[in-house]
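RECORD CONTENTS
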Amino acid sequence: MNGTVVCFGELLLRLSAPGRERLLQTPRLQVQIGGAEANVAVSLARLGHDAAMAGTVADNALGEAALGELRRHGVDTRRMRAAPGRMGLYFLAPGALQRPSEVLYDRADSAFARTPASAYDWDALLEGAAWLHLSGVSPALGAECAQATLDAARAARRRGVRVSFDGNFRGKLWQAWNGDAGAILRQIFAETDLLFADHRDIAVALGQTFAGEDHEAAVAAAAQAAFAAFPHLQRLACTQRQQRSVDHHHLSALLLTRAGGRERAPGYELAGIVDRIGTGDAFAAGVLHGLIDGMDDARALRFGLAAACLKHSVPGDFNLVGRAEIEALVEEAGFHVRR
C-alpha cells in the first residue's frame, strides 16, 4: 500500500464514568486516548496502512502516554511535536435506554489549541504522503488551528496529496471564539477530494439549506451543490443513523460521486450498543481503506459501514477490529466462534 496517510488533529484524554454510571456517581474515571483524527490513524494502521499522526501534545507525561498509545497500535508519531501546556480532555457519561450519553469538553488552551499555525512545516510533514486526513473539529478550536488546517489542505493540494475531510461540525466550539465556520469550511472544502459530510455540513459551508422528501434526497441535493462549488471534490460519503433508543440504532450509508454515481450500503440493526464514540471515524477509515486498496465505490462503502458497525461493539475511541473481521461482516459470515 503505497504512500502514508497523514492525519492532523488533537489527541485527547477521554475520562469516562465506569459502566453506565453518571459522572462521579462513584469517585472513579476510566482513562483512554482518543480524538477524531487519531481514531482514523489507528484504524488505518490496524488495516495495514502506513498511518502517521501530525499535531501537538503537551510536553509532559500525559502527552508522552498519548503518543505511546498511538505507537502501540502502529501509528507513526514522528510528525508529532511536544510543547508546554496541557492535554485536552473530554468527560463521557455513557447513556442507557432513554438517557442519552453526555460529553463534557475541557480542551481550552491545550497545547494543541495554543500552537501557532506557523509551527507546522507542511512540506516536511507531508513528505511521502499519499493522503491527508483532516476533520472539522480542528478548525473549530480557534483561529490558529483553523489556519493550520487550511495550510495543511493547501500544501497537500500543491504537493499532489489527496485530501480527506470529515465535517464533524461542532457549533459550540465555533461559537466559543466567534469563528466564521462557513467561510473557513468553504476554503477547506475547496481543497478536498473525499468529503465525509451530509446536507447539514454542506449547508454550513455554502450558507443554504437543502430539503428533500427524505435524508437521501437532501444529501443528494447538497452533494450536487458541493460538486458545483468545489471542483476538486470527487466523492461525498455519509451514514444515516436512526435511533430506536440509546442502545439500539439502525445504521446505513450513502456515497455520491462527481460523475453522478450513487451507492447505498444496506443498513444494519445495532442492538445492545457498547460504545458509539468514534464510529464515524471508523466509517471514514473504512472507506479510505477501501479506496486506497482499489475497491470500487460500492465495496468501499460497504467496508466502511461494516467497520463503523463493528466499532459499536468496542469500548473506547479506537476501532480495534481487523480487516478479516470487517470482511466477514461485509460477507455476512455469521456469529460462529472463529478458531
User: Anything to note?
Assistant: The chain is about 35% helix and 25% strand. The chain has a mean pLDDT of 93. The first helix runs from residue 36 to 46.
